[in-house]
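User: Good morning. I'm curious how zinc ion would be positioned relative to this chain. Could you predict the structure with it bound?
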Amino acid sequence: MAKQKGAQDLEAVVMDTLRLVFLLPIALAALLQRLWGARKVLGNALACPTCNTQIPLTGMWQCKKCNFVFYGFYFAKCKVCRGVRPFINCPACGASTRNPLIVWWWRKERG
Ligand SMILES: [Zn+2]
Ligand SMILES: [Zn+2]
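Assistant: Good morning! Here's the predicted structure, ligand included:
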């Protein structure tokens, strides 16, 4: 019995290490994104995964939450309500692309 328990402990340590190795680059990327700013990470356009059109991210946008209209970066935080858009619609095919700057697995885990 004692031997089996030892093996389980080892397995837990290995799993923890693997998780750390896997999550560390993601955490670092999120940190760098915060340091650099969303615009430098994404550039001025985002490729649509459905039709491959370059969706322009700079322009005149209206906040969906508070209707504040501004010129600038699509995924930037709204200056009034601090809201961030979760997705953008492709102007060519109409398919939505999720905001790549939101860490979706993190959101899901936190509910
Ligand atoms: Zn498209
Ligand atoms: Zn707003």
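DSSP finds three helices and six strands in the chain. Strands lie at 45-47, 54-56, 58-62, 69-73, 87-89, 96-98.
Let me know if you'd like a different ligand tried.
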